[in-house]
Write a structure and sequence with these properties.
The complex is a heterodimer of chains A (244) and B (285). Helix content of chain A is 12%, strand content 61%. By secondary structure, chain A is mainly β. Chain A has two domains: 34 residues, no CATH class; 207 residues, Porin, CATH 2.40.160.40. Chain B has a seven-stranded mixed sheet, with helices on one face. A five-stranded mixed sheet of chain B has the order 4-3-2-11-12, with helices on one face. Classes of the chains: A mainly beta (244), B alpha/beta (285). Chains A and B meet through strand 8, strand 11 and strand 12 of A and helix 2, helix 7, helix 8 and strand 9 of B.
Chain lengths: 244, 285
């Protein structure tokens, strides 16, 4: 092999290195097609708060491959003038198959447009996840940028916010039906300021291997960490979980 | 069984009145909620003791401080300094004490009141914060200051300005107060030159200096941003976070005051100049 050919090959490899992230995704996607799993979760939501009552419709789609990587994206629209979209990438590894412990992390980007209030919001979050038979724990941090649509003003940057979710199940995840309880400051489409926790209780019922029904109810108090608590909002959420 | 007993014992200890941390308040036990405080304010005609203050010039000053945290152990020297500054300024109309004036116990209220009594000429507008409600403090607040939700006007020779005090001691305005506020702004805003809103809980949180002390829920924050902007509110003053912030959202200026508590770094109060526009000066304590 002469020097010219070696140089050409190395420059080609250098060019490829510039696109290593995309190549990794392509590789992961290729692997994923071997044992890919799609999921879909459409649901309806009713929320009543101190500000307004509203109905929302949402749909979240997921694509998992090789049991390690998965991506999720979802959209939601609410009658109170809110449109949201998120994209999320998850990496989960099995720590102990026998004890059913998985661990990993996710990276999430949420965009919300509060049409009614002329506010747009962009949130970035990174969180670590630990899943066991009966309890899941999520801990992470996020930062938020919000700005208004009509005025030429500087965006407000909330640089540090913590996110958390502690979720408990009565039965193991594969059980035909289940009851789930959680405390968190997160939902599919937003990450609330750290001081506002959501108390949720929900039920799942598996119709078959691919279809489940769910119903969640939640309560959001204001002023919990003020040590002067007051009701702020309550909500119901119900829909279908499909996997294929 | 021993685990259950331990949990019950721990719960009983937490739910009992704690001298340092008002744990029962976090669970909403033993406190009046914001809607019942609204009902009380309504019964008082949303009055704080004065409904109109007359001033001889179109330009005047208002002083504002937050978070004195007067405890049951003694009097606040920063409170005295603040009130003295208001008293000494011939152009000052009134002072706004934007919540967490006291730590909630009866003795703390009495200590705050003792300093206030030394300045009978000062028009003092109080605002309820979360600490006023600790240790079942609301009855003492009612007795001493009256309504937690109210408004008053300052009448100059050619104009009138409106000052609105909101109760955010529980981290939300609640349904009744929100409806009342919308109605008040819709009905009255056009009759006034400036509109200043003051409430304890802060709106913007660029900093997590206070850790767990919460602001408003995001959805409520955005709804209030829009409401204040729609009715051209001139300035919104708050405290609570012990961290100074000055942000403008949708044309409305939101100021979060530093704590005025004794012996804290950056303790300060605001000297607000009201004319055709509003400006302020930070005075260190």
């Amino acid at each position: 092999m002469d020097i010219k050919v070696v140089c050409l090959k190395s420059s080609f490899l250098l060019k490829l290195m510039k696109y290593k992230f995309y190549l990794f995704l392509l590789f992961a996607f290729h692997l994923g097609t071997i044992s890919a799993q799609w999921s879909m979760r459409p649901y309806l939501e009713y929320k009543s708060s101190a500000i307004h009552d509203n109905i929302g419709a949402a749909c979240i789609a997921g694509y998992a491959f090789e049991d390690i990587y998965s991506v999720h994206a979802g959209g939601k629209i609410q009658s109170a003038g809110l449109g949201s979209f998120f994209a999320q990438g998850d990496f989960m590894w099995t720590v102990s198959e026998e004890k059913r412990i998985d661990a990993g992390f996710y990276n999430k980007y949420i965009y919300c447009n509060y049409f009614l209030y002329d506010i747009q919001e962009f949130t970035v979050a990174v969180a670590g996840v630990l899943k066991t038979r009966y309890v899941d724990v999520t801990l992470g941090f996020s930062n938020r940028l919000y700005w208004n649509v009509r005025y030429d003003e500087k965006a407000i940057y909330e640089r540090a916010n913590f996110l958390y979710e502690i979720k408990g199940r009565v039965f193991e995840e594969e059980h035909k039906y289940n009851l789930i309880f959680s405390i968190s400051n997160i939902d599919d489409f937003y990450i609330e300021r750290v001081q506002f926790l959501h108390l949720k209780a929900g039920g799942r019922y598996k119709l078959n291997g691919n279809v489940s029904l769910f119903l969640d109810a939640g309560f959001i108090p204001a002023g919990f960490f003020h040590l002067v608590s007051n009701y702020y909002a309550g909500f119901f959420k119900s829909g279908v979980e499909l996997s294929f | 069984m021993s685990k259950i007993y331990s949990i019950l014992l721990l719960s009983a200890l937490l739910l009992s009145s704690c001298e340092l941390i008002y744990v029962r308040g976090a669970l909403g036990i033993g406190i009046d909620n914001v809607n019942s405080r609204y009902e009380f304010s309504n019964s008082q005609n949303f009055n704080c003791g004065f409904s109109s203050l007359a001033v001889g010039a179109d330009e005047y000053r208002v002083y504002a401080a937050a978070d004195f945290h007067t405890g049951k152990g003694g009097l606040s020297s920063n409170q005295a300094t603040f009130l003295q500054a208001v008293n000494d300024d011939a152009g000052a109309v009134c002072c706004l004490s934007i919540g967490d004036m006291v730590s909630g116990e009866k003795q703390a209220y009495e200590n705050y009141s003792a300093v206030l009594r030394n300045f009978p000429e000062v028009n003092h507008a109080a605002c309820v914060g979360n600490h006023e409600l600790y240790f079942e403090g609301w009855p003492y607040y009612k007795e001493m200051f009256g309504s937690s939700i109210y408004y008053f006007e300052v009448a100059t020779p050619n104009y009138k300005d409106i000052f609105i005090c909101l109760d955010s001691g529980s981290g939300t305005l609640g349904t009744s107060q929100t409806v009342w506020l919308k109605d008040l702004l819709e009905r009255e805003r056009r009759n006034y030159r400036n509109c200043i809103v003051f409430t304890h809980t802060n709106f913007t949180c660029k900093d997590l200096s206070q850790g767990t002390t919460g602001s408003f829920v995001l959805e409520e924050t955005y709804a209030l941003f829009r409401l204040f902007s729609t009715y051209n509110v001139s300035m919104v003053l708050s405290g609570h976070d012990h961290y100074f912030e000055d942000s403008t959202v949708q044309g409305v200026r939101y100021i979060t005051l530093d704590a005025a508590k004794d012996n804290v770094k950056n303790a300060s109060f605001l000297k607000i100049n009201c004319s055709d526009s509003i400006s302020y000066e930070i005075v260190k304590l």
